[in-house]
Amino acid sequence: MDIQATAVRDLFRVQPHLRDDSRGLFFESFKEGRLAEATGHVFVPRQVNYSVSKRNTLRGIHGVVHPPSQAKYVTCVRGAVLDVVVDLRLGSPTFGAYETTVLDERSGTSLYIAEGLAHGFLTLTDDAWMNYLCSTEYVPGTQFDINPFDRQLAIPWPLTEPPVISDKDATAPSLAEAIDAGILPDYGQCLRLYAEARRAAARRAAGDERSSTPAPAAVPRVPS
Prior knowledge:
This protein is an alpha+beta fold. Helix content is about 20%, strand content about 30%. A six-stranded antiparallel sheet has the order 1-2-10-7-12-5, with helices on one face. Strand 1 (about 1-5) and strand 2 (about 10-15) form a beta hairpin.
């Protein structure tokens, strides 16, 4: 798989190598070691979510406060969506920037979305299925929302008619209101979170190496 950085720091686009033949299609969608090697991020899924949406459904913009924070690995497994990721980490060099990507069932493209980034999408087809691998389990009351039509963000949703959207998303606070409310993650805290995840992974790897080392053979006693 090819893993590429994007204009939003700590957002990565993952393009699998497709194997297509008379039977259909096969590809590797996620490899923990390959992702860590290419991005420097440690990602261990703790929860898997699915959403199924009709055409012209808009979900987002959603993030998770720190703590606990949450990284995501998202893939469209049926249909197609326009996926949008926004950097809402206060102090980040790319704060307020967004990246758009078309995800669809045929390409197999995925996005790795680090902790502190926020996510949303607009469905381009009926019966669009999204798969989310999440680094933490859901904790009620920890999600924050930003209005997808916030003028400061100015996300170019390709709408030809009003979208299907929840009341919660349609009335979510603006970016300025979220800043004033103090609900956005801090970039420095996110960097420390990433670093601690790397240290924890290194400790686990060191422990695995020790446990796999054979114990020294017992020295036989010589009868006196």
